[in-house]
Amino acid sequence: MTRRLLQLGMLLGVIFVAGCSTANAPAAASAPSPVATPTAAVTATAAAQEVALPEGVLYEDDFSNPQSGWPIVDVDNYRFGYHPPDFYHVEVKSPHDTLPVFRGMNFGDATVETTALVDHTTTETGDYRYGLALRRSGRQYYAFTVSPRKKSWQIAKHSPTGVKTLAEGTIDTLQGFAPKGVTPDKKDDLRVDAVGSNFAFFINGRNVAHVSDAEYVSGDVGFIVETLDESLVHVHYDSLVISKPKQSEDVLFEDDFTNPDGGWPKVDFNNYRFGYHPPDFYHVEVKAPHDSLTVFRGMNFGDASVETTALVDHTTTDSGGYRYGLALRRSGDQYYVFAVSPRTKSWQIAKHASQGVTVLAEGSVDTLQGFAPKGVTPDKKDDLRVDAVGSDFAFFINGHDVAHVNDADYATGDVGFFVETLDEPLVHVHYDSLIIRPPQETPIADLTPAAAAATPVPTPTAMPTATPLPATLPADAKALIDTVLSDVVERANNAEVDAILSGDENDIELWWDGAARDRVLASIKSIRDRFVQVTEVNWARSGEWIQVQSHSDTEATYTTSETWTFVGTADQKCADGSALRRRYVETYPNQRYTLRLKDGKYQIIAWQLGRAITGDITTICP
């Protein structure tokens, strides 16, 4: 299909009427485009609003007046215009097509908000997206869209050379859609706060993402509908309000955790608990020693000043070591951590990756105050701050500049919290606030604090071993774990990794038998079927890794807790034509196995998977 760039002035003889029935329009002039997706971009000439606007509002339309200046067109596969009594409808009538509609306005820094519903589609299964388009100039604009059927959102940057996804994620609060043949009785609210190069995105009042992009500074505002594999999509926009930016130029994101629907995850399973804690905290708890937990919200920041206040609500002992703090620039399993240890009076800056953890700097601090003896809740908090500009980082504790580090590996990413138990059995931390601002100017200190040399700290993960296994099962449970189960689980998992990567399942027979073998082969096939080509598989211990349930001389039943990461190419393309990749991070907190020793051979003969927790699904493009 030829992509059409329809300017309203070209549509000579168009009759402007209200409602779904519009006059036929003559063929529009076509314009060649290198963009693969057929797209019609439509612009009307803005008419001045004559009504008085509320304070702070720059533009407002409830679409009850069919003469308010929006285009009315019915041509080929596109239909858009006023729909009585008070909607503006946008319809695309063919799959794999995109239609942005603009009015002819120009805004830079602003808050753009609409309410909308999906009036109807042709099928009940096809995927589609709709939403807002802003800062449009020619074929350049940003789009914020939602997909009701996939329960997802996307932030994209459109240009004459293609479409680049800036961020995407999942959402479970969409309500403005209904089964085929039924008109929904609810709407969804989409909002974008755009201030300079910083954007905040909201769905039904929930802040779902932050993105920084400086390329498009101002332009038109309008609507967008994408059919994807749905053959027809008809969306009703109920209102459009453009106001002075609600996001402060001095604050990119702020949360005091008084609103339990503020968008942070809420989970309580096995050794981890995190969520809102009345009246105004976000708590993160780890319930096993030598474990760590990072919690993220789904944001994206590059250069920024990240600051939190926090206290340690309680621990199990009075002596165990632990750390807590901030995590930033996270993408997948890569992120930086700035953490403090109240009991050792120390701080640490670390770089986390799938291969392990590298300590970038560490030192001592004597100003920590947000902790108290066991059984006592502290009445003070500690303030942690990181100023990140490019590869330069400055770190502060209670206003004191403690370190400067330079590392260029991670440029942007999510922001969240981090708790590590070390040898403390339980740590429960209360985060009182999180503020993200434009980066503050911080002079590089003349003296760098005493810091240990960067030291790789391996993440617990499977490593091949040639140690021979005992000829009998030890009677002591701890000895059973140390001398048999740890080794068998590692070897069996490594065989599974190799089979997922290569498709060669021969080594599975060495460690798996009977029903367990059949189940692991089915699991391998299921994972390989997610991708065109699997490129990376990693696993790591989590929580209490192995716990013995029962054992005899020849059999042992035990549980494990593991986190697996799968990466591979998908049957889709990125904007530059390269293969799109996806990363899945999944935690299995309670897998139950039975190990049998027979004829001197150890094999897993039973496997009960338990529930899986999908922590992260990431789309990767250059």
CATH architecture of the largest domain: Sandwich
Number of helices: 3
CATH class of the largest domain: Mainly Beta
- Catalogue the unreliable spans: 1-39, 442-467
Helix content: under 10%
Q: Could you give a short description of this structure?
A:
This protein is mostly beta strands. The protein has three domains: 5-243, Jelly Rolls; 253-457, Sandwich (Jelly Rolls); 477-620, Nuclear Transport Factor 2, Chain: A (Roll). The chain is globular and about 85 Å long.
Question: What do you see in this structure?
Answer:
The protein is mainly β. It folds into 3 domains: 5-243, Exo-inulinase, domain 1 (Jelly Rolls, Sandwich); 253-457, Sandwich (Jelly Rolls); 477-620, Nuclear Transport Factor 2, Chain: A (Roll), CATH 3.10.450.50. It contains 3 helices and 38 strands. Strands 3, 4, 5, 6, 8, 13, 14, 15 and 17 form a 9-stranded antiparallel β-sheet that branches. Strand 34 (533-551) and strand 35 form a beta hairpin. Helix 1 (477-502) packs across helix 3 (514-528). The two termini are 28 Å apart. Residues 1-39 and 442-467 have low confidence and may be disordered.
